[in-house]
Structures are given as C-alpha cells and as structure tokens.
Amino acid sequence: MVMLAIYQLYQEMQYTKLENNQFSHVTTTPDDAETSMFTVVFQFPPHLLYGAKPLSPAYLSTQGRTDVSIVLGVPTLDERTESHLRATLYNLIENMSAEDQSDTLIVVYIGEEDETVVERIVQQIEENFAEHLKSGLIDIVAPEDSYYFPFLQDDLSRLSKQNLDLAYLMAYAHAKGQFYVQLTDAVLARPNFVRNMRKFALVQMALNNIFQPTWFVLDFFPNQFGGKLFKGEELPYLITHLQTFYKDIHWHKLIKSFIESTLCRKGAEECLLQMSTYWQTYDILLFQRFGNSTLREKLRLLSLKT
Questions:
Q1: What pLDDT digit, counting tens, does each position of 74-111 carry?
Q2: Helices and strands: H and E segment counts in the chain
Q3: How many CB atoms within 10 Å of residue 262?
Q4: Distance between CA 90 and CA 75 in Å, rounded?
Q5: How many angstroms separate the CA atoms of 239 and 172, rounded?
Q6: Is 142 helix (H, G, I), strand (E, B) or coil?
C-alpha cells in the first residue's frame, strides 16, 4: 500500500509536469478511435492501471496516415542514432517506389527517457526528412518516462527494456496497416523490399488452408532481430505476451513461446514440426545488417547527396 501511494504521488507529479511541459508535442492530434486502439491493448502492466498518462506519448509527430499495406517499425536509441538511423531511413525510402511510399508508414520509436535526447533525435529526423514527415510517410513517437515504471529502472536489463519498447511501438502501429514489419535502426534493404514483402504475405494468406494452421510470422531476415512481418490485427495478442514475459527474455524466444503456448494445440514434438508453418521464411534475404564498411560507404554517399 505504501509503494502504491508513493507511485500514485509520482504519477500526479508527472501529470503536472506534462501539463506544463512544452516538450509534449503532437503534430496532428489522433482522433478518439485511434487513441482508444492505441491504449486498450496496453492496460496490462500494473503500473499502467493508475492513470492514462504513461500510455500517452511524450512526443508524437504524425500526419495521421493509416490504412496502409505495411507499417515499418524502427526503434532507435541515442547511442546509435547519429550513425545508423539517418542512413537506415534514407536506405528504406530510396528502395521504395513512389507507389510503395504512398502505401507504407515508417514509425520511428525513440526509446529514451531523457527529454533532451529525444529532442535531439527529433531534430535530426526533421532536418533530414522534413519532406517525408510532411507527406505522412514517417511518424515519430516517444513514450512518457513513467512508462518504464521508476521502481524497476535499476533492474531493467537491455532485453527487458527492448521488449517493453517493442510492445509500445506495436501498440501504436498495429491498427495503422494490414501488416507490421519489425525492423531496427541498423539495416540495409534490397530494392523493392516493400513490394516483395507485401506480395509474399498476400500469397501466403491466399494459400491458407482451413484444415491446417496458418502462419503467424513471415521472416525476411532469419536469425536476426528485424525483418519479421506480422498481421496487424494479430499484434495485440503478441503485445500482451511481450508485456507478460518481458523480463530478460530475447524477443525471438518470446515469439516462439507465444506460438507454442497459444497457437500450437498439440504436443511439443508435433508443434516443433509445425513451427515452419507458423514461422515461415522468405527464400531471399531482403535485409542486411550494417557492417563497418557498409555503414561508412552509406554515410559517405549520404554526405555527397546533402
């Protein structure tokens, strides 16, 4: 009870701070339906039940683009932003056709609690991608620092925070497109990658057999963090799983455990045999990680362009 009272007092202080804080920013205010869809899948962690502010973004820049085919989720941290995020966003955009750009949304999630850090990252994006922010191709979202629950901060490992970040990003993005693709801020994409992912996903949906399990994730970057495509309508189930088992478990294992515990209704051995159906892999790598040489070359080309 004492801890609850302390935390509620902390929340009241945060709300006062938010009301008087110019940092909180929304370029285009989402409508009530969008806000509702953002928060309703998110009421599970206990510290989020004592007020709505931890669910409201500290920073949100959006033109309200929705009903796209594919949403690309790009989480970023300050430690890699300057060298990776700019090159990644340029690469993603230049490898999309004009048609793909009009049917895609890139959501940059800034997983930082320090307002000055968030502001600096936002400024970098605005300076380099003003046209794409204005067109609605890029959204930027950052959570309230209270989202990370202050009493757990000292114990919040990299893996735990990563899972909480992904849950927030997915909750924001899940209703904005038919498919959601988890990426990182350190990838290079092949030309027409959006078109290839969309086509493969639609074909796999058309091939669904009512007598067989359907796919849950399509993998375009096997054995790596990013390149995983999900159906937008199914993300809330995965979000709840991430929130429940977020602590110190790699998100690859969490996807697998979700499939095993939720989708597979048979024994472990048969579930293992069916895993390739639930988790399907594309036969061509559509992404690659930045190496030192590829990153230097990409940044060199960007400097020539700008």
A1: 999 875 545 689 999 999 999 999 999 999 999 999 99
A2: 12, 11
A3: 14
A4: 15
A5: 11
A6: strand
Q: How far is the C-alpha of 92 from the C-alpha of 253, rounded, in Å?
A: 27
pLDDT tens column, 128-174: 999 999 999 999 999 988 788 655 556 778 888 899 999 999 999 99
Residue 143 amino acid letter:
P
**From its phi and psi, is residue 36 left (phi > 0), alpha (psi between -120 and 50) or beta?**
alpha
Q: Taking Cα atoms as reference points, which of 216, 195, 201, 234 lies closest to residue 271?
A: 216
The tokens for 29 are 């205010």
Nearest CA among 160, 200, 166, 158 for reference residue 183 = 166
In the 8-state DSSP scheme, what is residue 306?
-
| pLDDT classification of 56: cutoffs 50, 70, 90 | confident
Phi, psi torsion values for 208, nearest 5 degrees: -55, 135
- Neighbouring residues of 130: CB distance < 8 A, sequence distance ≥ 6: none
Cβ(213)–Cβ(274) below 8 Å: yes
Nearest CA to 152 out of 20, 13, 7, 277 is that of 7
Taking CA atoms, 258 is separated from 62, 196, 238, 261, in Å, by 31, 26, 7, 5
Residue 233 CA to residue 40 CA, distance in Å, equals 13
The model's pLDDT over 158-169, given as tens digits with 9 standing for 90+, comes to: 888 899 999 999
Please, which residues have CB within 8 angstroms of residue 161's CB and are 6 or more apart in sequence? 111, 148
